[in-house]
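Quick one from the shared queue. A colleague (R.T.) flagged Salutaridinol 7-O-acetyltransferase-like protein as missing a structural entry in our internal table.

Convert sequence to structure tokens.
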Amino acid sequence: MKAQQMWDEREEKGTQRVDFIFSSWCRMGWYECDFGFEEPIWVACGITAQRNVCILIDAKDGHGMDVWLWMAVDEMERVESDHEFIKFVSSS
């Protein structure tokens, strides 16, 4: 289905628009940074009060990525129970 068609159907149903922020921090070399304590074991994002945010970061092993999501609890529960989504996720 085309994006415009999906958007039009959404408007016809009166569905409220939700903004979502996506940011890719991939290929920024986070795991190569050395601030005098050797390379980091794990890179993470700070806590934000903002909702509907998705940040992508390269995985430490260079294969895949870590995805950080900030969402309302009920929305996150829906994502976690989505079988199609889970096919692409491995938790660590």
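The longest helix spans residues 3-13.
The chain has a mean pLDDT of 82.
Added to the table.
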